[in-house]
Specification:
This protein is an alpha+beta fold. The protein is built from four helices and 15 strands. The chain has a domain of about 170 residues.
Amino acid sequence: MRGELIVGRKLFCELSPTCYRISLEKEIIKRKISDLFGGEKFAERKSTDKLPAVLASHSSVLIRHLEGVDMRLQENKVTNIKLACEKINGIVVRPGEVFSFWRLLGKPTEKAGYLEGMILKKGKPAAGIGGGLCQMANMVHYLVLNCALQVTELHHHTDALFPDDRRRVPFGTGTSVSYNNLDYRFRNNSDGNIQIFVWIENGELCGEIRGEKEYPYTFSLEEEDHHFSKEGDKYYRISKVYRVKTDKESGRVLYRENILNNHSEVMYDCALIPKDQIR
């Protein structure tokens, strides 16, 4: 955690579970104070009336068969995602406003109906209340990357935790979230309202961002030079991800931006790495 006290050779948060909770609460309080006096205008208004233009849409499989992960946690994740949909669905982000994942969802607790799902604890899978909400944050982030919006807070996963299972997006384009320390935020820096809809359909999380008028261009994400590399006794997943903006009418590429250089340690059984992808 940022600004963490060092005691001996360990960070204060590493001394005990109690010290970790104290450190986490400190960060949550700092966030609340920063938001209170920071001058940002956060999106809060929701509407069931849909804006006319679909600017971006996407879907992702909810239950994946991940090596070493209890399927109960995957099933509980669906409940957690449903609760998150209720908080986000229909949110309108006006020009200049900021979307904050945690300000909309609030703290995921048992009292609020959240169940144990998979979380990451010290870089390893574990069970925790509200686990699986990263998938919702990933959905919103992917939609935002396909729109003319400004990401203001993003925390990339640094490791390759699981092998692919029906993955449809470039590797590494997700985001970590942890209440209320690691948030996901973006600003609507356009001159019109945008609106987010998220829902569950046929075993998938679906989402779209709508606006008042269509873009004269499209965005896409392209992954290049994807492979695995052995470095010492460890394997790493490597690739480059580009965000491409293309004029709709002419098909001309307006710009191509490198947004991510993946070099992620493989944390799962290396025997599951496809042999033809190792260099």
